[in-house]
Amino acid sequence: MTCEDTPITVFCYRKPHFYILSSLYSENPGISLPVCYARGVRQRLSRTGPVRMVRAAVLLLGLVVSCRAGLAPPTVNISLDEDPEVRWAPLLQVFDVEYLKKSGAEIIDATVPKWVHHAVEPIVMALEKYIPPPYAGELRGMASHFGGSLSDVIILNFAYEISAFCTSIIAQDKNGHVYHGRNLDYPHPVLRNLTVNVVFLKNGEVAYRGTSFAGYVGLWTGQSPNKFTVSGDQRGSEHWWNWWKNVVSAFLFKRSPVSWLVRKTLEEAQDFKDAVMSLSKIPIITGVYYVVGGVRAGEGAVITRDRTGPADIWPLDPVNGGWYRVETNFDHWLPPPKAANKALNATGQEHINMDTLFQVLSLYPVCNGITVYTTMMSAAAPAKYNTAVRPQVIKLHPKCVCTICLYYFCHRHLLTYLF
Protein backbone atom coordinates (compact mmCIF):
# COMPACT_ATOMS: atom_id res chain seq x y z
CA MET A 1 0.00 0.00 0.00
CA THR A 2 1.50 3.32 -1.04
CA CYS A 3 0.66 6.95 -0.55
CA GLU A 4 0.42 7.43 -4.30
CA ASP A 5 -2.45 5.06 -4.93
CA THR A 6 -4.39 4.93 -1.66
CA PRO A 7 -7.57 7.02 -1.38
CA ILE A 8 -7.87 8.23 2.19
CA THR A 9 -9.72 10.72 4.29
CA VAL A 10 -7.28 13.45 5.19
CA PHE A 11 -8.86 14.10 8.57
CA CYS A 12 -6.83 11.95 10.92
CA TYR A 13 -5.31 11.72 14.35
CA ARG A 14 -1.56 11.70 14.72
CA LYS A 15 0.52 9.01 16.41
CA PRO A 16 4.29 8.54 16.61
CA HIS A 17 5.79 6.57 13.72
CA PHE A 18 2.61 6.33 11.68
CA TYR A 19 -0.69 7.94 10.95
CA ILE A 20 -4.07 6.30 11.19
CA LEU A 21 -6.63 7.61 8.78
CA SER A 22 -10.28 6.73 8.52
CA SER A 23 -11.17 5.04 5.26
CA LEU A 24 -14.60 5.19 3.72
CA TYR A 25 -16.86 2.18 3.67
CA SER A 26 -16.46 0.81 0.18
CA GLU A 27 -20.09 -0.22 0.12
CA ASN A 28 -21.25 3.32 0.95
CA PRO A 29 -19.57 5.64 -1.55
CA GLY A 30 -22.10 8.35 -0.79
CA ILE A 31 -20.72 9.18 2.65
CA SER A 32 -20.17 12.93 2.52
CA LEU A 33 -16.66 13.29 3.89
CA PRO A 34 -13.89 15.18 2.09
CA VAL A 35 -11.74 12.55 0.42
CA CYS A 36 -8.62 12.97 -1.66
CA TYR A 37 -5.51 11.15 -2.68
CA ALA A 38 -2.45 11.64 -0.54
CA ARG A 39 -0.56 12.98 -3.55
CA GLY A 40 -1.63 16.51 -4.24
CA VAL A 41 -3.37 17.29 -0.96
CA ARG A 42 -1.31 20.39 -0.38
CA GLN A 43 -1.86 21.61 -3.93
CA ARG A 44 -5.60 21.15 -3.66
CA LEU A 45 -5.81 22.92 -0.32
CA SER A 46 -3.73 25.79 -1.64
CA ARG A 47 -6.39 26.38 -4.29
CA THR A 48 -9.19 26.58 -1.73
CA GLY A 49 -10.27 29.67 0.08
CA PRO A 50 -9.78 30.49 3.76
CA VAL A 51 -13.33 29.43 4.67
CA ARG A 52 -12.82 25.93 3.32
CA MET A 53 -9.46 25.75 5.06
CA VAL A 54 -11.10 26.70 8.35
CA ARG A 55 -13.75 24.02 7.89
CA ALA A 56 -11.08 21.44 7.17
CA ALA A 57 -9.06 22.51 10.19
CA VAL A 58 -12.06 22.42 12.52
CA LEU A 59 -13.09 18.98 11.30
CA LEU A 60 -9.53 17.72 11.64
CA LEU A 61 -9.14 18.90 15.21
CA GLY A 62 -12.53 17.47 16.09
CA LEU A 63 -11.44 14.05 14.89
CA VAL A 64 -7.92 14.15 16.28
CA VAL A 65 -9.15 12.61 19.52
CA SER A 66 -12.11 10.52 18.37
CA CYS A 67 -13.45 7.84 16.07
CA ARG A 68 -16.19 8.52 13.55
CA ALA A 69 -19.65 7.40 14.59
CA GLY A 70 -20.09 4.48 12.21
CA LEU A 71 -23.13 2.74 10.78
CA ALA A 72 -25.85 0.59 12.31
CA PRO A 73 -25.53 -3.16 11.62
CA PRO A 74 -28.44 -5.21 10.27
CA THR A 75 -30.89 -6.81 12.68
CA VAL A 76 -32.22 -10.37 12.57
CA ASN A 77 -34.93 -11.98 14.67
CA ILE A 78 -34.17 -15.46 16.00
CA SER A 79 -37.10 -17.43 17.38
CA LEU A 80 -36.18 -19.64 20.31
CA ASP A 81 -39.42 -21.51 19.65
CA GLU A 82 -37.94 -22.87 16.41
CA ASP A 83 -35.82 -26.01 16.35
CA PRO A 84 -32.13 -25.15 16.93
CA GLU A 85 -31.20 -26.53 13.49
CA VAL A 86 -33.36 -23.98 11.66
CA ARG A 87 -33.58 -20.95 13.96
CA TRP A 88 -30.57 -19.16 12.42
CA ALA A 89 -31.97 -19.32 8.87
CA PRO A 90 -32.96 -15.59 8.97
CA LEU A 91 -29.25 -14.75 8.62
CA LEU A 92 -29.54 -15.77 4.98
CA GLN A 93 -31.94 -12.88 4.40
CA VAL A 94 -29.19 -10.44 5.32
CA PHE A 95 -25.88 -12.07 4.38
CA ASP A 96 -24.59 -13.72 1.21
CA VAL A 97 -23.70 -17.36 1.84
CA GLU A 98 -20.54 -17.32 -0.24
CA TYR A 99 -19.31 -14.22 1.53
CA LEU A 100 -19.93 -15.85 4.91
CA LYS A 101 -17.97 -18.94 3.88
CA LYS A 102 -15.08 -16.86 2.57
CA SER A 103 -15.02 -14.64 5.66
CA GLY A 104 -15.15 -17.62 8.00
CA ALA A 105 -12.19 -19.25 6.27
CA GLU A 106 -10.27 -15.97 6.48
CA ILE A 107 -10.85 -15.68 10.23
CA ILE A 108 -9.87 -19.29 10.88
CA ASP A 109 -6.69 -18.94 8.80
CA ALA A 110 -5.76 -15.74 10.64
CA THR A 111 -6.39 -17.25 14.07
CA VAL A 112 -5.43 -20.92 13.92
CA PRO A 113 -2.39 -22.11 11.92
CA LYS A 114 -3.30 -24.42 9.06
CA TRP A 115 -1.45 -27.40 10.49
CA VAL A 116 -3.33 -26.99 13.77
CA HIS A 117 -6.58 -26.59 11.86
CA HIS A 118 -6.08 -29.87 10.00
CA ALA A 119 -4.81 -31.68 13.09
CA VAL A 120 -7.77 -30.79 15.28
CA GLU A 121 -10.53 -31.46 12.73
CA PRO A 122 -10.96 -35.14 13.73
CA ILE A 123 -10.75 -34.18 17.42
CA VAL A 124 -13.44 -31.55 16.97
CA MET A 125 -15.72 -34.02 15.24
CA ALA A 126 -15.19 -36.54 18.04
CA LEU A 127 -16.05 -33.90 20.62
CA GLU A 128 -19.17 -32.73 18.77
CA LYS A 129 -21.33 -35.15 20.71
CA TYR A 130 -20.33 -33.39 23.94
CA ILE A 131 -21.66 -29.99 22.85
CA PRO A 132 -24.67 -29.14 25.03
CA PRO A 133 -28.05 -28.13 23.65
CA PRO A 134 -29.13 -25.89 22.06
CA TYR A 135 -25.69 -25.07 20.67
CA ALA A 136 -25.08 -28.49 19.11
CA GLY A 137 -28.21 -28.17 16.99
CA GLU A 138 -27.52 -24.52 16.16
CA LEU A 139 -23.99 -25.31 14.99
CA ARG A 140 -25.26 -28.18 12.84
CA GLY A 141 -27.86 -25.83 11.42
CA MET A 142 -25.19 -23.22 10.64
CA ALA A 143 -23.18 -25.81 8.75
CA SER A 144 -26.26 -26.86 6.81
CA HIS A 145 -27.37 -23.31 5.98
CA PHE A 146 -23.93 -22.15 4.90
CA GLY A 147 -22.89 -25.33 3.11
CA GLY A 148 -19.71 -25.69 5.16
CA SER A 149 -18.26 -28.47 7.27
CA LEU A 150 -19.43 -28.85 10.85
CA SER A 151 -15.84 -28.98 12.07
CA ASP A 152 -15.11 -25.59 10.51
CA VAL A 153 -18.23 -24.05 12.05
CA ILE A 154 -17.18 -25.32 15.48
CA ILE A 155 -13.58 -24.15 14.98
CA LEU A 156 -14.81 -20.73 13.86
CA ASN A 157 -16.99 -20.34 16.94
CA PHE A 158 -14.07 -21.17 19.21
CA ALA A 159 -11.69 -18.95 17.24
CA TYR A 160 -13.74 -15.99 18.51
CA GLU A 161 -13.00 -17.09 22.08
CA ILE A 162 -9.25 -16.48 21.68
CA SER A 163 -8.96 -12.71 21.47
CA ALA A 164 -11.67 -10.22 22.37
CA PHE A 165 -9.87 -7.01 23.30
CA CYS A 166 -12.40 -4.60 24.69
CA THR A 167 -13.41 -1.70 26.85
CA SER A 168 -16.58 -1.90 28.93
CA ILE A 169 -17.95 0.91 31.10
CA ILE A 170 -20.86 1.01 33.52
CA ALA A 171 -21.84 4.37 34.96
CA GLN A 172 -24.60 5.73 37.18
CA ASP A 173 -25.95 9.26 36.90
CA LYS A 174 -27.14 11.49 39.75
CA ASN A 175 -30.68 10.12 39.41
CA GLY A 176 -29.62 6.50 39.79
CA HIS A 177 -29.91 5.54 36.12
CA VAL A 178 -27.32 2.94 35.08
CA TYR A 179 -25.72 3.08 31.62
CA HIS A 180 -23.57 0.42 30.00
CA GLY A 181 -21.30 0.93 27.02
CA ARG A 182 -18.73 -1.25 25.35
CA ASN A 183 -16.19 -1.26 22.54
CA LEU A 184 -15.39 -4.66 21.09
CA ASP A 185 -11.99 -4.96 19.44
CA TYR A 186 -10.90 -7.76 17.13
CA PRO A 187 -7.90 -7.82 14.77
CA HIS A 188 -10.07 -9.00 11.85
CA PRO A 189 -11.37 -6.14 9.64
CA VAL A 190 -13.85 -8.47 7.92
CA LEU A 191 -15.88 -8.62 11.14
CA ARG A 192 -17.22 -5.14 10.46
CA ASN A 193 -19.20 -6.64 7.60
CA LEU A 194 -20.37 -9.58 9.73
CA THR A 195 -21.62 -7.61 12.73
CA VAL A 196 -25.32 -8.11 13.39
CA ASN A 197 -27.84 -7.21 16.06
CA VAL A 198 -29.75 -10.31 17.12
CA VAL A 199 -33.18 -10.18 18.76
CA PHE A 200 -34.07 -13.48 20.44
CA LEU A 201 -37.82 -14.07 20.61
CA LYS A 202 -39.78 -16.36 22.92
CA ASN A 203 -43.53 -16.77 22.38
CA GLY A 204 -43.36 -13.80 20.05
CA GLU A 205 -41.87 -11.50 22.71
CA VAL A 206 -38.33 -10.18 23.03
CA ALA A 207 -36.54 -12.47 25.48
CA TYR A 208 -33.17 -10.78 25.09
CA ARG A 209 -31.00 -9.16 22.46
CA GLY A 210 -27.33 -8.85 21.67
CA THR A 211 -24.70 -7.95 19.12
CA SER A 212 -22.74 -10.73 17.48
CA PHE A 213 -21.18 -11.91 14.22
CA ALA A 214 -22.94 -13.90 11.51
CA GLY A 215 -22.16 -17.58 12.03
CA TYR A 216 -21.41 -17.18 15.74
CA VAL A 217 -23.86 -18.59 18.30
CA GLY A 218 -22.34 -16.90 21.35
CA LEU A 219 -22.74 -13.34 22.62
CA TRP A 220 -20.13 -10.96 24.03
CA THR A 221 -22.71 -8.17 24.37
CA GLY A 222 -26.34 -8.43 25.40
CA GLN A 223 -29.36 -7.09 27.20
CA SER A 224 -32.25 -8.74 29.01
CA PRO A 225 -34.94 -6.05 28.88
CA ASN A 226 -35.80 -4.47 32.22
CA LYS A 227 -33.46 -6.90 33.99
CA PHE A 228 -29.75 -6.43 33.20
CA THR A 229 -27.07 -5.83 30.59
CA VAL A 230 -23.81 -7.74 30.19
CA SER A 231 -20.59 -7.55 28.22
CA GLY A 232 -17.52 -9.77 28.22
CA ASP A 233 -13.87 -8.68 27.94
CA GLN A 234 -10.92 -10.99 27.51
CA ARG A 235 -8.72 -11.50 30.56
CA GLY A 236 -5.05 -12.22 29.99
CA SER A 237 -3.39 -13.17 26.72
CA GLU A 238 -4.70 -16.30 25.07
CA HIS A 239 -2.68 -17.75 22.21
CA TRP A 240 -3.61 -20.11 19.43
CA TRP A 241 -1.56 -22.90 21.04
CA ASN A 242 -3.97 -22.83 24.00
CA TRP A 243 -6.98 -22.91 21.70
CA TRP A 244 -7.26 -26.70 21.57
CA LYS A 245 -7.04 -26.87 25.37
CA ASN A 246 -10.04 -24.58 25.59
CA VAL A 247 -12.00 -26.75 23.16
CA VAL A 248 -11.26 -29.93 25.11
CA SER A 249 -11.95 -28.14 28.39
CA ALA A 250 -15.31 -26.95 27.11
CA PHE A 251 -16.60 -30.36 26.20
CA LEU A 252 -14.88 -32.98 28.33
CA PHE A 253 -14.91 -30.97 31.56
CA LYS A 254 -18.30 -29.38 30.84
CA ARG A 255 -16.97 -25.85 31.03
CA SER A 256 -18.81 -23.18 29.13
CA PRO A 257 -17.28 -20.94 26.46
CA VAL A 258 -17.40 -17.43 27.88
CA SER A 259 -19.80 -16.15 25.22
CA TRP A 260 -22.16 -19.09 25.65
CA LEU A 261 -22.43 -18.31 29.35
CA VAL A 262 -23.41 -14.73 28.48
CA ARG A 263 -26.21 -16.02 26.30
CA LYS A 264 -27.33 -18.63 28.85
CA THR A 265 -27.44 -15.95 31.55
CA LEU A 266 -29.44 -13.58 29.36
CA GLU A 267 -31.95 -16.33 28.72
CA GLU A 268 -32.29 -17.69 32.26
CA ALA A 269 -31.36 -15.07 34.89
CA GLN A 270 -34.30 -13.25 36.45
CA ASP A 271 -32.55 -10.07 37.62
CA PHE A 272 -29.20 -8.37 38.18
CA LYS A 273 -28.27 -10.41 41.26
CA ASP A 274 -29.18 -13.65 39.54
CA ALA A 275 -27.03 -12.66 36.55
CA VAL A 276 -24.02 -11.83 38.73
CA MET A 277 -24.36 -15.18 40.49
CA SER A 278 -24.54 -17.11 37.21
CA LEU A 279 -21.63 -15.27 35.60
CA SER A 280 -19.52 -15.70 38.74
CA LYS A 281 -20.03 -19.35 39.57
CA ILE A 282 -20.41 -21.43 36.40
CA PRO A 283 -17.07 -22.91 35.22
CA ILE A 284 -15.75 -21.47 31.95
CA ILE A 285 -12.96 -22.36 29.54
CA THR A 286 -10.76 -19.32 30.09
CA GLY A 287 -10.47 -16.14 32.15
CA VAL A 288 -12.73 -13.22 31.35
CA TYR A 289 -14.19 -10.01 32.75
CA TYR A 290 -17.97 -9.94 32.87
CA VAL A 291 -19.41 -6.44 33.23
CA VAL A 292 -23.04 -6.30 34.38
CA GLY A 293 -25.48 -3.42 34.73
CA GLY A 294 -28.93 -3.52 36.33
CA VAL A 295 -32.05 -1.39 36.49
CA ARG A 296 -31.68 0.14 39.97
CA ALA A 297 -29.20 2.51 41.54
CA GLY A 298 -26.03 0.69 42.56
CA GLU A 299 -26.67 -2.29 40.28
CA GLY A 300 -23.40 -2.59 38.43
CA ALA A 301 -20.33 -4.78 38.79
CA VAL A 302 -17.17 -6.01 37.10
CA ILE A 303 -16.64 -9.74 37.67
CA THR A 304 -13.04 -10.87 37.26
CA ARG A 305 -13.21 -14.55 36.38
CA ASP A 306 -10.86 -17.50 36.62
CA ARG A 307 -11.84 -20.73 34.92
CA THR A 308 -13.44 -22.15 38.05
CA GLY A 309 -14.88 -19.11 39.78
CA PRO A 310 -14.61 -15.41 40.60
CA ALA A 311 -11.23 -13.88 41.38
CA ASP A 312 -12.89 -10.59 42.32
CA ILE A 313 -16.19 -8.72 42.10
CA TRP A 314 -15.89 -4.92 41.79
CA PRO A 315 -19.30 -3.26 42.32
CA LEU A 316 -20.44 0.26 41.67
CA ASP A 317 -20.11 2.39 44.80
CA PRO A 318 -21.66 5.76 43.98
CA VAL A 319 -22.05 6.75 47.64
CA ASN A 320 -18.26 6.76 47.99
CA GLY A 321 -17.49 8.26 44.59
CA GLY A 322 -17.40 5.03 42.60
CA TRP A 323 -20.14 6.07 40.16
CA TYR A 324 -18.45 4.36 37.23
CA ARG A 325 -16.34 1.30 36.55
CA VAL A 326 -14.01 0.91 33.56
CA GLU A 327 -12.76 -2.50 32.47
CA THR A 328 -10.34 -3.02 29.61
CA ASN A 329 -8.32 -6.23 29.50
CA PHE A 330 -6.45 -5.81 32.78
CA ASP A 331 -7.28 -6.53 36.40
CA HIS A 332 -8.78 -3.38 37.91
CA TRP A 333 -6.32 -3.35 40.82
CA LEU A 334 -3.51 -2.70 38.33
CA PRO A 335 -2.84 0.86 37.03
CA PRO A 336 -6.16 2.11 35.58
CA PRO A 337 -6.88 2.96 31.92
CA LYS A 338 -6.05 6.66 31.95
CA ALA A 339 -7.88 7.82 28.82
CA ALA A 340 -11.32 6.49 29.76
CA ASN A 341 -11.02 7.47 33.43
CA LYS A 342 -9.87 10.97 32.56
CA ALA A 343 -12.74 11.44 30.11
CA LEU A 344 -15.33 10.17 32.60
CA ASN A 345 -14.01 12.42 35.35
CA ALA A 346 -14.12 15.37 32.96
CA THR A 347 -17.70 14.51 32.01
CA GLY A 348 -18.84 14.18 35.61
CA GLN A 349 -21.69 12.19 37.11
CA GLU A 350 -24.13 15.07 36.64
CA HIS A 351 -23.59 14.97 32.86
CA ILE A 352 -23.28 11.25 32.20
CA ASN A 353 -25.90 9.75 29.88
CA MET A 354 -26.04 7.52 26.82
CA ASP A 355 -24.70 10.24 24.52
CA THR A 356 -21.80 11.38 26.70
CA LEU A 357 -20.81 7.80 27.47
CA PHE A 358 -20.75 7.11 23.73
CA GLN A 359 -18.44 10.10 23.33
CA VAL A 360 -16.08 8.64 25.94
CA LEU A 361 -16.03 5.34 24.06
CA SER A 362 -15.25 7.25 20.86
CA LEU A 363 -12.05 8.80 22.19
CA TYR A 364 -8.67 7.50 21.08
CA PRO A 365 -7.24 5.14 22.28
CA VAL A 366 -10.45 3.83 23.87
CA CYS A 367 -11.69 3.57 20.29
CA ASN A 368 -8.83 2.49 18.06
CA GLY A 369 -7.80 0.83 14.83
CA ILE A 370 -9.24 -2.59 15.66
CA THR A 371 -12.48 -1.45 17.29
CA VAL A 372 -15.22 -3.30 15.42
CA TYR A 373 -18.31 -1.91 17.10
CA THR A 374 -19.59 0.16 20.01
CA THR A 375 -22.80 -0.76 21.84
CA MET A 376 -24.77 1.46 24.19
CA MET A 377 -27.47 -0.01 26.44
CA SER A 378 -29.45 0.50 29.62
CA ALA A 379 -31.57 -2.35 30.99
CA ALA A 380 -34.16 0.09 32.36
CA ALA A 381 -34.55 1.62 28.89
CA PRO A 382 -34.27 -1.41 26.58
CA ALA A 383 -35.51 0.44 23.49
CA LYS A 384 -32.34 2.56 23.55
CA TYR A 385 -30.09 -0.42 22.78
CA ASN A 386 -27.85 0.79 19.97
CA THR A 387 -24.79 -0.51 18.13
CA ALA A 388 -22.51 1.41 15.76
CA VAL A 389 -20.02 -0.40 13.54
CA ARG A 390 -16.81 1.61 13.55
CA PRO A 391 -15.11 2.48 10.26
CA GLN A 392 -11.99 0.58 9.30
CA VAL A 393 -8.73 2.48 9.59
CA ILE A 394 -5.47 2.09 7.72
CA LYS A 395 -1.89 2.82 8.71
CA LEU A 396 0.32 5.00 6.59
CA HIS A 397 4.03 5.68 6.99
CA PRO A 398 5.06 9.26 7.85
CA LYS A 399 6.71 9.51 4.43
CA CYS A 400 3.24 10.55 3.33
CA VAL A 401 4.59 14.07 3.74
CA CYS A 402 1.44 15.70 2.49
CA THR A 403 -0.55 14.32 5.43
CA ILE A 404 2.06 15.53 7.88
CA CYS A 405 2.03 18.95 6.30
CA LEU A 406 -1.76 19.06 6.44
CA TYR A 407 -1.73 18.23 10.14
CA TYR A 408 0.82 20.89 11.00
CA PHE A 409 -0.86 23.42 8.71
CA CYS A 410 -4.20 23.02 10.49
CA HIS A 411 -2.63 22.85 13.94
CA ARG A 412 -0.59 26.04 13.49
CA HIS A 413 -2.98 28.20 11.49
CA LEU A 414 -6.45 27.39 12.82
CA LEU A 415 -6.50 30.24 15.34
CA THR A 416 -5.19 32.70 12.75
CA TYR A 417 -8.11 32.00 10.43
CA LEU A 418 -10.73 31.85 13.18
CA PHE A 419 -9.72 35.03 14.96
From TrEMBL:
<dbReference type="InterPro" id="IPR029132">
    <property type="entry name" value="CBAH/NAAA_C"/>
</dbReference>
<dbReference type="GO" id="GO:0047412">
    <property type="term" value="F:N-(long-chain-acyl)ethanolamine deacylase activity"/>
</dbReference>
<keyword id="KW-0472">Membrane</keyword>
<keyword id="KW-0865">Zymogen</keyword>
<protein>
    <recommendedName>
        <fullName>N-acylethanolamine-hydrolyzing acid amidase</fullName>
        <ecNumber>3.5.1.23</ecNumber>
        <ecNumber>3.5.1.60</ecNumber>
    </recommendedName>
</protein>
<dbReference type="GO" id="GO:0016020">
    <property type="term" value="C:membrane"/>
</dbReference>
<keyword id="KW-0443">Lipid metabolism</keyword>
<keyword id="KW-0378">Hydrolase</keyword>
<dbReference type="Pfam" id="PF02275">
    <property type="entry name" value="CBAH"/>
</dbReference>
<keyword id="KW-0442">Lipid degradation</keyword>
<comment type="similarity">
    <text>Belongs to the acid ceramidase family.</text>
</comment>
<keyword id="KW-0276">Fatty acid metabolism</keyword>
<dbReference type="InterPro" id="IPR029130">
    <property type="entry name" value="Acid_ceramidase_N"/>
</dbReference>
<dbReference type="GO" id="GO:0016042">
    <property type="term" value="P:lipid catabolic process"/>
</dbReference>
<feature type="domain" description="Acid ceramidase N-terminal">
    <location>
        <begin position="72"/>
        <end position="130"/>
    </location>
</feature>
<dbReference type="GO" id="GO:0006631">
    <property type="term" value="P:fatty acid metabolic process"/>
</dbReference>
<dbReference type="GO" id="GO:0005764">
    <property type="term" value="C:lysosome"/>
</dbReference>
<feature type="domain" description="Choloylglycine hydrolase/NAAA C-terminal">
    <location>
        <begin position="166"/>
        <end position="303"/>
    </location>
</feature>
<dbReference type="GO" id="GO:0017040">
    <property type="term" value="F:N-acylsphingosine amidohydrolase activity"/>
</dbReference>
<dbReference type="Pfam" id="PF15508">
    <property type="entry name" value="NAAA-beta"/>
</dbReference>
<keyword id="KW-0325">Glycoprotein</keyword>
<comment type="subunit">
    <text>Heterodimer of an alpha and a beta subunit, produced by autocatalytic cleavage.</text>
</comment>
<comment type="pathway">
    <text>Lipid metabolism; fatty acid metabolism.</text>
</comment>
<keyword id="KW-0458">Lysosome</keyword>
<keyword id="KW-0732">Signal</keyword>
